UniProtKB/TrEMBL annotation:
UniProt KW Nucleotide-binding keyword: yes
Keyword vocabulary terms for this entry: ATP-binding, Cell membrane, Membrane, Nucleotide-binding, Transport
Coiled coil spans: none
Membrane topology of this protein: Peripheral membrane protein
Organism: Nonomuraea maheshkhaliensis
Pfam families in UniProt: ABC_tran (PF00005), oligo_HPY (PF08352)
UniProt-listed PROSITE patterns: ABC_TRANSPORTER_1, ABC_TRANSPORTER_2
Compartment(s): Cell membrane
Primary site of residence: membrane
InterPro entries, alphabetized: AAA+_ATPase, ABC_Ni/Peptide_Import, ABC_transporter-like_ATP-bd, ABC_transporter-like_CS, Oligopep_ABC_C, P-loop_NTPase
Name of the protein this chain belongs to: ABC transporter ATP-binding protein
Region (Disordered): 1-23
GO molecular function ontology, one term from the record: ATP binding
Upper taxonomic lineage: Bacteria, Bacillati, Actinomycetota, Actinomycetes, Streptosporangiales
ABC transporter domain residues: 26-270
Length: 285
């Protein structure tokens, strides 16, 4: 939804961020993503995120959630270009060169993705991988660095033994915890989590999500949580933004959207989440 031209005219102004008097940490304004051939995949998306706020970005597969995240990180794949404005802690990401992006990534913002192996080096033990960002961010060495690695593992409920393991030697849930520890080791102001639990077993999903929730709120870190499951995302976020085929169709307080969705697409997402819950209750012993 562009600020000049709301897609849903009857909709009231979307809920304001929780914190009104501080500038947004992330200000996405009229963000479009285009293919080299000219086709547009994301159409003028706008939203803001205040420091410490949690925003859920939801929508079906292919609605543009990951492209939004990648554009915010300045990580769009070759052949795709971003247009509009993405201000992250005052730095313009659209059109920025790598040097400027390097200053922002891993300091202001870091990310976890659906597949933790993308973030982990298969040839390096977990402890060494974790030590890299901690050393860079906090300047620790030797025993102090080893202690900080242990603490970082402990925070994501991994035993110190995991430090000596290679990524293929631990489970998918443990790998996602390790990837989360790496993202948090940078002490970013904003964590972007793109479907962080989708590839995990249902029971492990709940554990990792609860962990993510606790760690983000404990650090007053802002969170952009991307997912297709409205019930899951709404449970962890203050506000929701709903994407449909590359356009933002609704945004507001998570509880308001779940209770009274305005846009037909959002209504369908809420109804399908409710139908799933009802089926789950019916099947549960
Ligand atoms: N590199 C690319 N080149 C061309 N089209 C792309 C590229 N990456 C994504 N797309 C297209 O852009 C649209 C949005 O993709 P995106 O990955 O953002 O969706 P998504 O909402 O994250 O979906 P999912 O939940 O399946 O990850 C889709 O139609 C997808 O096919």
């Amino acid at each position: 939804m562009s600020r000049e031209e709301p897609t849903v005219p009857e909709q009231p102004t979307p809920a304001e961020p929780v914190t009104r008097d501080v500038p947004p940490l992330l200000d996405v304004d009229g963000l479009s993503v285009r293919q080299a051939g000219g086709g547009e995949l994301l159409h003028g998306v706008s939203f803001t995120l205040a420091p410490g706020e949690r925003l859920g970005l939801i929508g079906e597969s292919g609605s543009g959630k990951s492209l939004t995240a990648l554009a915010v990180l300045g990580l769009l794949p070759a052949g795709l270009s971003a247009h509009g404005s993405v201000l992250l802690a005052g730095t313009q990401i659209v059109g920025a060169r790598d040097r400027r992006l390097d200053r922002v990534r891993g300091r202001t913002v870091s990310a976890v993705f659906q597949e933790p192996l993308t973030a982990l080096d298969p040839l390096m033990r977990i402890g060494r991988q974790l030590a890299g960002p901690i050393r860079r961010r906090r300047g620790l060495r030797g025993g102090a660095l080893r202690a900080a690695v242990s603490t970082a593992l402990d925070e994501v409920r991994l035993s110190a033994r995991v430090a000596g393991a290679y990524p293929h030697e631990i489970s998918g849930g443990q790998r996602q915890r390790a990837a989360l520890a790496m993202a948090l080791a940078c002490e970013p102001d904003l964590l972007i989590a793109d479907e962080p639990t989708t590839a995990l077993d249902v029971t492990v999903q709940a554990e990792v999500l609860a962990l993510l929730n606790g760690l983000v709120s404990g650090r007053s870190m802002a969170l952009l949580l991307i997912g297709h499951d409205l019930a899951v995302v709404a449970g962890v976020t203050d506000r929701l933004a709903v994407l449909e085929r590359g356009s933002l169709v609704e945004s507001g307080r998570a509880e308001d959207i779940v209770r009274a969705p305005r846009h037909p697409y959002t209504r369908a997402l809420v109804e399908s989440a409710e139908a799933f819950e009802a089926e789950f209750d019916r099947l549960a012993p």
